[in-house]
């Protein structure tokens, strides 16, 4: 009897809505390329999650702090270093995080708050009026990052971004703190760093800024690099993440139907399949702006995780040699949205936060319960 091989990486079916052929994506299963039993790969269960600790609230952000060799996580109204509380964080929404040699910074409620390692807390503000230094309209902080000894943040609703002073991180640079991404008249949605560049993400372009090396007081410290500009924008502040030595992002509807892209050599390359684009297209621009992207790596899987209001999508770069490989993550028995978020490697385990309850968890590879 001849052997019949069935494709497991993804199925093929008809949509009950428009009768179009669509990919039937694996649910809570990862495609693993490996020669097993005359097959080129197999499906393995996504690791399960077990409870780790009780915290103050739902997960709002996480970052590995290299200066302290510890994971800093914002849950509810508290900032945690590992499992111990180190500070209070206002608000309840998503936060941006960055760190330096002397402090862990959190962008929250329109402010850049620095939790210094000596226990003090400072908020970035202008120099005293009698100092003689320039007074800036700092406005409201939208997103933060750090590069070469300075924090950088974008001013909400504008195309301006600022850098902190080298000597006192709680104030803007004394002479040249403000810069503009002039190709983004609707404002900078997000900001990040790539290699030695500040990256400003708008709704229709992505601009890169490099250091000028100037040492003269008042001279510009950063200058735009037009050759690296990407003619795509991001859908929301957290719809971008470092991935594969570059950035992955969900594009803004301003540049056409939204999709998922990876930046490379000044160009954006799509990695979404038609079925993934159909899912993304089912969201309004306002819903898409609330999306969150993160990366996760374990057992040679290079995962890009996209948290949307009604879906959690996973792209596996290690299994995508013959085409983009996607899967869907769900929680429970009744098609609920996947609850875990903010994965990070901590110690010798992968920890995560929760979208609904005041707990943290850890991936457990001998179970598959979600």
From TrEMBL:
It comes from the Bacteria. Pfam families: Phage_stabilise. InterPro entries: Phage_P22_Gp10. This is DNA stabilization protein. It comes from Salmonella enterica (Salmonella choleraesuis). The lineage of its organism: Bacteria, Pseudomonadati, Pseudomonadota, Gammaproteobacteria, Enterobacterales.
